[in-house]
Design brief:
Elements: E1 4-9, H1 16-29, E2 36-41, H2 44-54, E3 59-63, H3 80-85, E4 90-93, H4 96-101, H5 106-118, E5 122-127, H6 131-135, H7 139-150, E6 162-166, H8 180-198, H9 200-205, E7 208-210, H10 216-223, E8 230-233, H11 240-247
Parallel strand pairs: 1-2, 1-8, 2-3, 3-4, 4-5, 5-6, 6-7, 7-8
Helix pairs in contact: 1-2, 5-7, 7-8, 10-11
The structure holds phosphoenolpyruvate.
Protein backbone atom coordinates (compact mmCIF):
# COMPACT_ATOMS: atom_id res chain seq x y z
CA UNK A 1 0.00 0.00 0.00
CA UNK A 2 1.57 3.29 -1.08
CA UNK A 3 1.35 6.08 1.48
CA UNK A 4 -0.06 9.35 0.11
CA UNK A 5 2.66 11.97 -0.03
CA UNK A 6 1.84 15.69 -0.26
CA UNK A 7 4.65 18.20 -0.62
CA UNK A 8 4.51 21.99 -0.71
CA UNK A 9 7.01 23.94 -2.79
CA UNK A 10 7.05 27.52 -1.53
CA UNK A 11 9.38 28.66 -4.35
CA UNK A 12 10.80 32.20 -4.01
CA UNK A 13 8.04 33.32 -1.66
CA UNK A 14 7.97 34.36 1.99
CA UNK A 15 10.58 35.85 4.27
CA UNK A 16 11.83 33.72 7.15
CA UNK A 17 9.29 35.21 9.56
CA UNK A 18 6.41 34.70 7.11
CA UNK A 19 7.59 31.14 6.57
CA UNK A 20 7.65 30.46 10.30
CA UNK A 21 4.06 31.72 10.62
CA UNK A 22 2.90 29.34 7.89
CA UNK A 23 4.93 26.44 9.30
CA UNK A 24 3.38 27.00 12.74
CA UNK A 25 -0.13 26.96 11.27
CA UNK A 26 0.58 23.76 9.34
CA UNK A 27 2.15 22.04 12.33
CA UNK A 28 -1.03 22.67 14.32
CA UNK A 29 -3.52 21.79 11.57
CA UNK A 30 -1.76 18.71 10.29
CA UNK A 31 -0.68 17.23 13.60
CA UNK A 32 -1.31 13.53 13.90
CA UNK A 33 -1.95 12.77 10.21
CA UNK A 34 0.06 9.59 10.42
CA UNK A 35 -1.46 7.94 7.37
CA UNK A 36 0.21 10.38 5.00
CA UNK A 37 3.57 11.86 4.39
CA UNK A 38 3.88 15.66 4.31
CA UNK A 39 6.82 17.82 3.29
CA UNK A 40 7.28 21.58 3.00
CA UNK A 41 10.08 23.22 1.05
CA UNK A 42 10.62 26.86 2.07
CA UNK A 43 13.29 29.11 0.57
CA UNK A 44 16.88 28.38 1.65
CA UNK A 45 16.83 31.46 3.86
CA UNK A 46 13.93 30.09 5.92
CA UNK A 47 15.04 26.46 6.24
CA UNK A 48 16.72 26.84 9.58
CA UNK A 49 13.85 28.69 11.28
CA UNK A 50 11.15 26.48 9.76
CA UNK A 51 13.08 23.34 10.66
CA UNK A 52 13.07 24.34 14.33
CA UNK A 53 9.31 24.99 14.27
CA UNK A 54 8.26 21.74 12.58
CA UNK A 55 10.64 19.48 14.52
CA UNK A 56 8.59 16.65 16.01
CA UNK A 57 5.45 17.54 14.00
CA UNK A 58 5.91 14.73 11.49
CA UNK A 59 6.23 17.26 8.64
CA UNK A 60 9.44 16.79 6.67
CA UNK A 61 11.75 19.68 5.89
CA UNK A 62 12.58 19.93 2.20
CA UNK A 63 14.80 22.10 0.01
CA UNK A 64 13.82 23.28 -3.46
CA UNK A 65 17.17 22.62 -5.10
CA UNK A 66 20.79 21.80 -4.34
CA UNK A 67 24.21 22.27 -5.86
CA UNK A 68 25.88 19.41 -7.73
CA UNK A 69 29.02 19.20 -5.54
CA UNK A 70 29.64 18.82 -1.84
CA UNK A 71 31.55 22.09 -1.71
CA UNK A 72 33.78 24.33 -3.80
CA UNK A 73 33.78 27.30 -6.10
CA UNK A 74 30.07 27.44 -6.92
CA UNK A 75 28.99 31.00 -6.24
CA UNK A 76 25.37 31.22 -5.26
CA UNK A 77 24.84 27.48 -4.79
CA UNK A 78 23.84 25.65 -1.62
CA UNK A 79 25.42 22.27 -0.93
CA UNK A 80 24.04 19.02 0.35
CA UNK A 81 26.25 19.34 3.44
CA UNK A 82 24.74 22.73 4.25
CA UNK A 83 21.23 21.38 3.81
CA UNK A 84 21.87 18.39 6.02
CA UNK A 85 23.38 20.62 8.67
CA UNK A 86 20.05 22.47 8.84
CA UNK A 87 18.10 19.25 9.23
CA UNK A 88 16.82 19.06 5.66
CA UNK A 89 15.45 15.60 4.89
CA UNK A 90 14.36 15.89 1.26
CA UNK A 91 15.19 17.88 -1.86
CA UNK A 92 13.21 18.70 -4.99
CA UNK A 93 15.31 18.17 -8.13
CA UNK A 94 14.62 18.78 -11.81
CA UNK A 95 11.73 21.17 -11.20
CA UNK A 96 10.58 22.61 -14.51
CA UNK A 97 11.54 26.11 -13.39
CA UNK A 98 15.10 24.86 -12.89
CA UNK A 99 15.07 23.00 -16.21
CA UNK A 100 13.54 25.76 -18.32
CA UNK A 101 14.52 29.04 -16.65
CA UNK A 102 17.98 27.99 -15.48
CA UNK A 103 18.60 25.46 -18.24
CA UNK A 104 19.41 22.53 -15.97
CA UNK A 105 19.77 19.43 -18.13
CA UNK A 106 19.13 15.78 -17.35
CA UNK A 107 22.83 15.11 -16.64
CA UNK A 108 23.03 17.83 -14.01
CA UNK A 109 19.80 16.69 -12.39
CA UNK A 110 21.20 13.17 -12.19
CA UNK A 111 24.45 14.35 -10.59
CA UNK A 112 22.47 16.17 -7.93
CA UNK A 113 20.19 13.20 -7.38
CA UNK A 114 23.09 10.81 -6.85
CA UNK A 115 24.79 13.23 -4.49
CA UNK A 116 21.60 13.68 -2.46
CA UNK A 117 21.14 9.92 -2.17
CA UNK A 118 24.77 9.42 -1.18
CA UNK A 119 24.17 11.79 1.70
CA UNK A 120 20.94 10.15 2.81
CA UNK A 121 18.48 12.78 1.57
CA UNK A 122 15.18 11.85 -0.01
CA UNK A 123 14.58 13.22 -3.50
CA UNK A 124 11.53 14.36 -5.42
CA UNK A 125 12.50 14.03 -9.09
CA UNK A 126 10.28 16.19 -11.30
CA UNK A 127 9.50 15.27 -14.88
CA UNK A 128 7.00 16.68 -17.35
CA UNK A 129 6.38 17.96 -20.84
CA UNK A 130 5.84 21.48 -22.15
CA UNK A 131 2.67 22.51 -23.97
CA UNK A 132 4.55 22.31 -27.27
CA UNK A 133 5.73 18.79 -26.51
CA UNK A 134 2.22 17.71 -25.51
CA UNK A 135 0.81 19.21 -28.72
CA UNK A 136 3.53 17.38 -30.65
CA UNK A 137 2.48 14.05 -29.13
CA UNK A 138 5.82 13.42 -27.41
CA UNK A 139 4.72 13.53 -23.76
CA UNK A 140 5.62 9.90 -23.09
CA UNK A 141 8.98 10.20 -24.83
CA UNK A 142 9.90 13.33 -22.85
CA UNK A 143 8.96 11.73 -19.55
CA UNK A 144 10.85 8.58 -20.50
CA UNK A 145 13.98 10.57 -21.31
CA UNK A 146 13.86 12.67 -18.14
CA UNK A 147 13.15 9.67 -15.94
CA UNK A 148 15.75 7.43 -17.57
CA UNK A 149 18.51 10.03 -17.38
CA UNK A 150 17.46 11.26 -13.95
CA UNK A 151 17.68 7.75 -12.51
CA UNK A 152 20.97 6.85 -14.20
CA UNK A 153 23.13 4.88 -11.75
CA UNK A 154 20.23 4.35 -9.34
CA UNK A 155 19.62 0.85 -7.97
CA UNK A 156 16.35 -0.64 -6.75
CA UNK A 157 17.25 -0.14 -3.08
CA UNK A 158 17.46 3.64 -3.70
CA UNK A 159 13.88 3.89 -4.91
CA UNK A 160 12.35 4.02 -1.43
CA UNK A 161 14.04 7.42 -1.10
CA UNK A 162 12.96 8.69 -4.52
CA UNK A 163 9.55 10.12 -5.35
CA UNK A 164 8.74 10.91 -8.96
CA UNK A 165 6.62 14.01 -9.52
CA UNK A 166 4.84 14.26 -12.84
CA UNK A 167 4.43 17.97 -13.46
CA UNK A 168 3.23 18.95 -16.92
CA UNK A 169 4.93 22.31 -17.45
CA UNK A 170 1.82 23.82 -19.02
CA UNK A 171 -0.11 23.13 -15.80
CA UNK A 172 2.34 24.71 -13.36
CA UNK A 173 1.12 28.00 -11.94
CA UNK A 174 -1.28 28.46 -14.85
CA UNK A 175 -4.55 27.33 -13.29
CA UNK A 176 -4.74 24.63 -15.99
CA UNK A 177 -4.81 21.14 -14.52
CA UNK A 178 -4.30 17.89 -16.37
CA UNK A 179 -7.55 15.94 -16.23
CA UNK A 180 -7.37 13.13 -13.68
CA UNK A 181 -7.54 10.65 -16.55
CA UNK A 182 -4.71 12.32 -18.50
CA UNK A 183 -2.51 12.54 -15.41
CA UNK A 184 -3.22 8.95 -14.48
CA UNK A 185 -2.26 7.79 -17.96
CA UNK A 186 1.17 9.42 -17.69
CA UNK A 187 1.58 8.11 -14.13
CA UNK A 188 0.79 4.62 -15.44
CA UNK A 189 3.47 5.09 -18.09
CA UNK A 190 5.99 6.16 -15.44
CA UNK A 191 5.11 3.12 -13.34
CA UNK A 192 5.59 0.89 -16.39
CA UNK A 193 9.02 2.41 -17.01
CA UNK A 194 9.98 1.72 -13.39
CA UNK A 195 8.72 -1.85 -13.76
CA UNK A 196 10.74 -2.39 -16.93
CA UNK A 197 13.92 -1.17 -15.28
CA UNK A 198 13.58 -2.22 -11.63
CA UNK A 199 10.89 -4.90 -11.59
CA UNK A 200 7.19 -5.17 -10.83
CA UNK A 201 7.46 -4.97 -7.04
CA UNK A 202 9.51 -1.78 -7.19
CA UNK A 203 6.96 -0.26 -9.56
CA UNK A 204 4.06 -1.14 -7.29
CA UNK A 205 5.78 0.57 -4.38
CA UNK A 206 6.88 3.65 -6.32
CA UNK A 207 5.26 6.90 -5.12
CA UNK A 208 4.32 9.13 -8.05
CA UNK A 209 3.06 12.62 -7.27
CA UNK A 210 1.10 14.89 -9.58
CA UNK A 211 1.88 18.61 -9.70
CA UNK A 212 0.25 21.41 -11.66
CA UNK A 213 -2.41 23.76 -10.26
CA UNK A 214 -3.56 21.33 -7.57
CA UNK A 215 -6.11 23.01 -5.31
CA UNK A 216 -8.65 21.95 -2.68
CA UNK A 217 -11.36 21.69 -5.35
CA UNK A 218 -9.53 19.15 -7.55
CA UNK A 219 -7.42 17.25 -5.01
CA UNK A 220 -9.86 14.46 -4.15
CA UNK A 221 -10.67 13.64 -7.76
CA UNK A 222 -7.03 13.55 -8.81
CA UNK A 223 -6.08 11.45 -5.81
CA UNK A 224 -8.84 8.95 -6.53
CA UNK A 225 -6.92 7.75 -9.58
CA UNK A 226 -5.06 4.50 -9.18
CA UNK A 227 -1.62 5.78 -10.08
CA UNK A 228 -1.70 9.16 -8.35
CA UNK A 229 -0.07 8.80 -4.94
CA UNK A 230 0.29 12.39 -3.86
CA UNK A 231 0.88 15.96 -4.92
CA UNK A 232 3.66 18.46 -5.35
CA UNK A 233 1.86 21.74 -4.72
CA UNK A 234 3.11 25.23 -5.62
CA UNK A 235 0.74 28.19 -5.35
CA UNK A 236 -1.79 26.49 -3.08
CA UNK A 237 0.98 25.51 -0.65
CA UNK A 238 1.51 29.16 0.29
CA UNK A 239 -1.42 29.35 2.65
CA UNK A 240 -2.71 26.97 5.31
CA UNK A 241 -6.24 27.68 4.08
CA UNK A 242 -5.50 25.96 0.77
CA UNK A 243 -2.70 23.53 1.66
CA UNK A 244 -4.43 21.93 4.67
CA UNK A 245 -7.58 20.91 2.73
CA UNK A 246 -5.37 19.46 -0.02
CA UNK A 247 -3.54 17.31 2.52
CA UNK A 248 -6.91 16.42 4.08
CA UNK A 249 -8.48 15.84 0.65
CA UNK A 250 -10.56 12.90 1.90
CA UNK A 251 -11.49 14.18 5.35
CA UNK A 252 -14.01 16.98 4.75
CA UNK A 253 -13.45 20.22 6.70
C1 LIG B 1 5.06 23.41 -8.70
O1 LIG B 1 5.70 24.44 -8.66
O2 LIG B 1 5.66 22.34 -8.52
C2 LIG B 1 3.64 23.47 -8.94
C3 LIG B 1 3.00 22.37 -9.19
O3 LIG B 1 3.06 24.72 -8.92
P1 LIG B 1 1.47 25.06 -8.94
O4 LIG B 1 0.81 24.14 -7.93
O5 LIG B 1 1.38 26.47 -8.56
O6 LIG B 1 0.98 24.78 -10.32
Amino acid sequence: MRKKYIAGNWKMHKTASESVALADALAVSLAGMKDRKIMIAPAFTALSAVGLRIAGSGILLGAQNMGPEEQGAHTGEVSVLMLKDLGVQAVILGHSERRHTYLEGDGLVNRKLRLALRHGLEVILCVGETQEERDGGVTRAVVERQLGAGLEGVVEADLSRITVAYEPVWAIGTGKTATPADADEVHFHIRSLIAARFGKRAAEEQIIQYGGSVKPANAAELMSRENIDGFLVGGAALSADSFVPIVRYDRGK
